[in-house]
Amino acid sequence: MAKNSTFPIEGSCNCQNIRYRVEAKPLIVHCCHCRWCQRETGSAFALNAVIETTNITPLTTDPEIIHTASQSGRGQKIARCPKCRLAVWSHYSSAGPLLTFVRVGTLENPDVVGGPGIHIFTSTKQKWVVLDGKVPVVSEFYDMEEIWSKESLERWRVLLPEVEKYRASLVPVES
Predict the structure, then answer these.
(1) How far apart, in whole angstroms, are the C-alpha atoms of residue 44 and residue 35?
(2) For 41-75, how does the pLDDT look when each residue is reduced to its tens digit (9 = 90+)?
């Protein structure tokens, strides 16, 4: 993971209509191989830097928020540029608007995040994707206590009371 000295860092959509700044190092970077991410990105996986929304500073126009279906049944909210339609980040139901999943490729220098901290949902990864095991690989999701750094866990614990309030406000999903 990148050192704090490399942050803040800016990012944008293709047309520069949406510009933002990431104020702190991400909590973790997910490389998600689920079929939903494959379909949303049109690629073999999505690379998302997970960070507190309070550490994202909009620099220009607000993105358009598109609610899409998800495997959980609660959907996700994808922030897209209203002009070029590029997705710059998402909010998933687990923490709603409190955590932002920034598309790493939209950062001006994506190398600063240091690559994925974990590969998730590898049970549905494309067969040609070969993972070398240098970072954790899990077939579905994981226990944050086992994977996240001490610093990230401390930041998460600060956010957790708000996340719990958010989760309590959700209407149960019918199966």
Answers:
(1) 8
(2) 899 999 999 999 999 999 999 999 999 877 667 78
Contact 117, 1 (CB under 8 A): yes
E strand or H helix at 35, and its extent? helix 35-41
**What is residue 83's three-state secondary structure?**
coil
Q: Residue 68's beta-bridge partner residues?
A: 76
CA angle 55, 60, 65 (to 5 degrees): 75
DSSP 105-172: GGBSSGGGG-S-SEEE-GGGS-TT----SSS-B-SS---HHHHS-HHHHHHHHHHHHHHHHHHHHSPP
pTM for this one? 0.92
Under a CB-based contact definition with an 8 Å cutoff, are residues 24 and 4 in contact?
yes
Rounded to an integer, what distance in angstroms lies between the CA atom of residue 55 and that of residue 158? 13
Q: Give the Cα separation of 105 and 8 in Å (integer).
A: 16
Tens of pLDDT, residues 80-138: 999 999 999 999 888 999 999 999 999 999 999 989 999 999 999 999 999 998 999 99
- Tokens for 86, please give them: 């590029």
| Nearest-angstrom CA–CA distance, 149 and 1 | 10
